[in-house]
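[DERIVE C-ALPHA CELLS]
===
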Amino acid sequence: MDTLAYTQAYRQYEELEGIEYEPLNLKELDWIKLPNATWLGLLTVGVIAATLSAAPASAQVRVDTPNNSCLNARVGPGTGYDVYTCVSDGAALKDVVDSQGDWLELSSGRWVYGPYTTYGKLSGQSASIQAKVDTPNNSCLNARVGPGTGYDAYTCVSDGAALKPVVASRGNWLQLSSGGWVYGPYTTTGSGGTGGTIILKPGQTGTPVRDVQLRLQSLGYYDGAIDSIYGPKTTNAVKEFQRAKGLMVDGIVGPNTRQALF
C-alpha cells in the first residue's frame, strides 16, 4: 500500500509539473502468476525508471550562433552591459524567464541575444517562458477555455503561482500548454507565442518604459518626466490613451495597447 500511495502522489506531482514520460512496457508479464513481493518490486522499479527518464514538456534552449562561435552571456539586456561568460555553440542554456526586445533573461540572471539561440525555433513553436500570476490586486487569475472573458473560467490560479508553459497568444491572451487561456497582462511573462511582445506594467523601469513615455508625450497624453519609470503618471496616461482608443482600461501596455501606440 505504501508503494501504491507513493506512486499516486508522484503521479499528481508530475501532472502539476507538466512532466511527460513513456512508462515501461510490461505488457508481456503475467501479473497473476507473480508473487506479491515480486509485483511490488517491479512496480517500484517502474516508478524509479519513470522518474529517471522524466523530462519537462518544454524544450531546452541552446546556443545557435551563425558562425558556430560562443555566445556572450551579459549582466544586462544589451551589448553595452559587461560580459559574464561566453557559452559555447550548441551548449544548453538555463531556463528563459523573461525577455526584453531581442534579449532573453535566463534563470541565472544573465542575458543572451535571442536570435543566436534556438529560442523560437523549437519544433516550430516558441521556446516557453515560465510565467507566474501577477494580478494588480493580488487576486487569483481566471484560466478560461478560450481567449476572452466571454469564455467559461474553469479555475482561478492564485497570485504568484507558476503557470504552465506559454505556447501561443491571441491579442492580450496567452494559451498555456494545458490548453487553457489567461489574460497576459496579469502574468509576469513578457513573451507569448507570437514572438516576444514586451508587456509593461506599473513599477517597471528601463528603455521600453521610456519609449512609451516619449510616444504618449508626442500624442499629448503624458506631461511627466521622461525618467524610464512606470509610475502613477505613466499609468494614468496609458489609461487615458486606452480609454480614448476603446481599449481595455487597465494601465498596462499589452499587445493591443502597444499596437495602437506604435
Notes: The first strand starts at residue 19 and ends at 20. Residues 16-35, 47-59, 120-128, 190-196 have pLDDT under 50 and may be disordered. The radius of gyration is 23 Å.
